[in-house]
Structure formats: structure tokens, C-alpha cells
Amino acid sequence: MYSYIVWGNILALVFVVIFFVLQLLTPKKTVTTEPTKLHIGDITTESLQYYCGYDFMKPILVAVRGLVIDVSTRTDLYGPGRELHVYAGKEISRALALGSVRAEDCGSDQLHDLGEKEIQRLEAAFSDLTQLQKLDVVGQVVPLRNLTLEELAKHNGSNCDQFPLYLAIQGVVFNVMKGKDFYGPDGVYPFAGHECARALALMSTEIKDCNANIEGLSSSEMETLRDWKARFSNKYPIVGKIAS
Description:
Layout: H1 2-25, E1 41-43, H2 45-48, E2 61-64, E3 67-70, H3 75-78, H4 93-98, H5 116-132, E4 137-141, E5 145-147, H6 149-153, E6 166-169, E7 172-175, H7 180-183, H8 197-201, H9 219-235, E8 238-242
Parallel strand pairs: 1-4, 5-8
Antiparallel strand pairs: 2-3, 3-4, 6-7, 7-8
């Protein structure tokens, strides 16, 4: 009886060893996943300027004839201090057409005064970026919207499907959907749908302080407002301005 038990244990051990050997010898299937492509979508030139390489959390973008191109893989050219950094965060159609790296030729898509030679140079440059270098088109430049305060008020979070969360700081309108937990109706700063310059300067969470009046603010409160505006400009898309 004892010998049967011993042999049973030996056989079990053999099977375990064989199992692990087979596991080691069996080739593993490698699962490859496609890297997620960047998608920017609609962007204004006012927001585009913040994608210039100084914030390592943001890609480096340029625009050509309104199409936004991700040039992050070419930091050797477009990164800070590099040869073409003047292009980063800008519409560069005119500069490419002229073969220029002057700052005054960047930030413009005006081509009406250029000749056929310059237009061909622009088309060749665009082809080089998107086909030879295989850089991705990730969005398109759209104009700023002009909103009245009444129109802004519709973007208060009551119907985000139709009216995404917007707020304004000194007339500059930001899309704060990414910060809806902070700026939506139930947030700490429920400012969506409002011009909130004064409230931010005062570090107030009261809706009654949401207006553009900065009279009587101290220098430290004005500095606080500037900090808030810079933070929003870097973090949230600029989508419009308040119509005078």
C-alpha cells in the first residue's frame, strides 16, 4: 500500500515538472497594441500658442492652412532653442511659403500677395511634413466665437450636450469641460456660464462676485487674477471672447 502512495506522489511530481517545462518551452503570444493617436480637434490660434514646447505635458503643434500638425517627434527642430522653434504653436503657412524663419512671418495664413513659386514651396513643405516625415494632422484651427453674456449663461452646465461648460475671465472665454467637477453647478467654484474675473481675484466662491468689475482690487488681488488667467490659458481651450 505504501509503495502505491510513493509511486502516486512520484507520478504527480513528474506531471508537475512536465507541465512547467511545457510552459517554459511554449512560445508566448505577444499582444501588440497600436499607440493611441493624439486628437486635438478644433482649436483657436489663441490656444495653439500654448503648444510650443515649453510645457512638457503638451505636444508641440504647428498649423498649416488651418490644419494642425503634431511635430512633437521633431523636438530636434521645433523644441525650445532649436532652429524651427519660432514655428512652434503658430500658423506657419506664410513662413513656409516664403521659406522664412522670421518671427514676423509666423502666425499668419495670408497668402493672397504671394506668387505661384511661393505657393508651390508651401505645398511642397506641407507634403514633406505629412507624407515624407509622416507627421499626423491632429486637428483644425477655428475662429474665436463672439458671445454675449446672455449666450455665455447658457453654458452653465444645465445642458452640457448642447452647451458645453464655458466661463470667462476678463472677456476671454474658456471651455472648462475638463474641469466640470470644479466649475460645474456642483463644483467648488460653480462659475460656468459666468464672467468670473472679480470672483477669482477675491478667491471667492460666491456667484454674486462673478463679474468683470476689477475696480478697488488690491495689487495682490490683481496678481491673483493674473495667476488664475495664466493657469486657465495653459490648461483650458480658449474658444471665444465676450462681445463688447
